[in-house]
TrEMBL record:
InterPro entries: Alkaline_phosphatase, Alkaline_phosphatase_core_sf
Residues holding Zn(2+): 44, 48, 85-86, 166
Free-text cofactor note: Binds 1 Mg(2+) ion.
Keywords: Magnesium, Metal-binding, Phosphoprotein, Zinc
Cofactor names: Mg(2+); Zn(2+)
SMART domains tied to this protein: alkPPc
Binding of Mg(2+), residues: 39
Organism, scientific name: Notodromas monacha
Molecular function GO terms recorded: alkaline phosphatase activity; metal ion binding
Designated name of the protein: alkaline phosphatase
Pfam families hit by this protein: Alk_phosphatase
């Protein structure tokens, strides 16, 4: 796929992530349920390049895909989980003024008077430092358009283009629909897959649908007659993975 901001949006062009998500749901919709995973991988690709602009544009495309999935399904019989497989070294720093563009300059460093951006990376190709004989200075961003499409955010440690690393912090998980209450607290990543399998009565949880009644997080009594399949929808991005399970 192309980056969202560079995608051919003409009638004969490339469909958006939201368009493909809607089409996939239309194709898979049936009485027995389905499991669908949709990945917004270009968010990750842009971050590996220290390119926050493209990453954020694709994050908005991802958000539209989630919104489209919510409109195409019902919270009464569809579990949607949004989470992630990893983070990146992107960080928000400095004390930018309220209303300052997220892609803009945070402030000027007091000792050298050099500006630095609100968004920066711990490592990556955006590393650009020089030694003036007494101090290590970073690239002077005065009069540089930091919101330009190809601008690479500053990085503390050099790594080759496309080789910025993943981060190590916990990632968020969000859920809505039946059994969404199981997505809470801190868990290892495999837990999310177990929630999906449990909701869909798959694998080790196949017999769960044979029980006389199961009460969902929506308070609906679900009998084995209408739990022949739960529809599952998964979306992954640099931060997020989303699962839809439909009863």
């Amino acid at each position: 796929m192309s980056y969202e901001i560079e995608r051919n949006t003409s009638p004969n062009g490339e469909p958006s992530l939201a368009d493909m998500t809607e089409s996939a749901i239309n194709i898979l919709e049936n009485d027995k349920g389905f499991l669908l995973m949709v990945e917004g991988a270009k968010i990750d690709h842009a971050l590996h390049d220290n390119n926050a602009r493209r990453s954020l544009e694709d994050l908005l495309a991802f958000e539209e895909a989630v919104e489209r999935a919510l409109k195409k399904t019902s919270q009464l019989d569809t579990l949607i989980i949004v989470t992630a497989d990893h983070s990146h070294t992107l960080t928000i720093n400095g004390y930018p003024a309220r209303g300052n563009p997220i892609l803009g300059i945070a402030e000027n460093q007091t000792d050298f008077g050099l500006p630095y951006t609100t968004l920066m990376f711990t490592n990556g190709v955006g590393y650009n430092y020089t030694n003036n004989g007494t101090h290590i200075l970073w690239r002077n961003l005065t009069n540089v358009d930091t919101q330009a499409l190809d601008f690479r955010q500053q990085a503390a440690i050099y790594r080759e283009n496309g080789d910025e690393t993943h981060g190590g912090e916990d990632v968020a998980a969000y859920a809505i629909g039946p059994w969404a209450h199981l997505i809470t607290g801190a868990h290892e990543q495999p837990y999310v897959a177990h929630v999906a399998k449990y909701a869909a009565c798959l694998g080790d949880y196949a017999e769960m649908c044979q029980s006389s009644m199961r009460k969902t997080s929506c308070g609906i009594e679900v009998s084995s007659a209408n739990t022949g399949g739960i529809h599952a929808f998964f979306i992954t991005t640099m931060f997020l993975t989303s699962y839809i399970l439909q009863l």
